Amino acid sequence: MSWNGPPVRVAVAGKGGAGKTTICATAARLLARSGLRVVAIDGDTNPNLNAAIGVDAADAAPFLPTSLVSRRFDGPRLTAPVDEVLDRHSTLAPDGVRLVRMGMPQHADEGCLCSAHATVSAFLADLGAAAGTVTVLDLEASPEHLSRGTARHCDVLLLVAEPYYRSLEAVRLQASLAAETSIDRVAVVANKCRQQSDRDAIEEFCGRHRLELVGILPWSDAVLDADAETRPLLDFAPDDALVAAVGELVGALVPDRVEAGV
Length: 262
Ligand SMILES: Nc1ncnc2c1ncn2[C@@H]1O[C@H](COP(=O)(O)OP(=O)(O)OP(=O)(O)O)[C@@H](O)[C@H]1O
Ligand SMILES: [Mg+2]
Hints:
- It contains 11 helices and 10 strands.
- The mean pLDDT is 90.
- The chain has a single domain (8-261), classed as P-loop containing nucleotide triphosphate hydrolases (Rossmann fold, 3-Layer(aba) Sandwich).
- It is an alpha/beta fold.
- The N and C termini lie close together (7 Å).
- It has helices at 20-33, 49-53, 82-89, 114-127, 144-147, 165-178, 196-208, 221-228, 233-236, 241-253, 255-261; strands spanning 8-14, 37-43, 69-72, 75-78, 91-92, 98-101, 133-139, 156-161, 185-193, 212-218.
- The protein has an 8-stranded mixed beta sheet, sandwiched between helices. Strands 3-4 form a two-stranded antiparallel ribbon.
- Bound molecules: adenosine-5'-triphosphate and magnesium ion.
């Protein structure tokens, strides 16, 4: 069943290794399984969303070219219609997800990656006109996506927190930067929670900093085993508790869309 409602763009950020890519890949495929049109963007200059989603790097479409962007007074925008860019620069991934990848450094000493970030920013902005599309953007660990404005056009910024001090501090910093932007909704998702005290720590943190806690994801040995076999969690252990928890998370992030798509 197709759905033609307003687009939803979810950007996923947090400290290094918090689980951003695992969550993005699983969420994108679960959303697509519910019948939605899903675009997954790898916004990490060290790209690996393709592997987590189930696409070999050799089979992936070339990175988004920076020549696609023009700088306008309201920020970078694409020079071609977004659907045309999607047709040309995306890979059809499992469950029908369209995978798009930001550029990565090709050579040492080639300079900064501002243009690659600007291209993702433009792409995300133009996806705001793509009715019936849910976009999931996997960001790199650095808060630069907020200082550069890479994620400025997302509708939801999801901050992934592990239950330990430095991870929570990274979330606090990114939440305070996001509060200076026009991003509508900033929410925390706890990941790698092994015990009640982990959940309590994150709930206490979110309460203290007035942050919305949208989901609590469990520790999963299966995701490590899946990584060791270079297989997506969803294919390796579809009944794992982490998959079920990500399913609940996407329901909390895009509820009416998920219901409409089922
Ligand atoms: N719920 C979980 N339980 C156990 N391990 C997990 C869980 N989620 C992710 N991991 C593991 O943590 C590691 C980092 O995960 P992932 O690559 O998704 O994080 P990331 O935030 O995208 O990292 P980076 O900052 O490098 O992009 C991987 O080995 C992954 O399998
Ligand atoms: Mg990652």
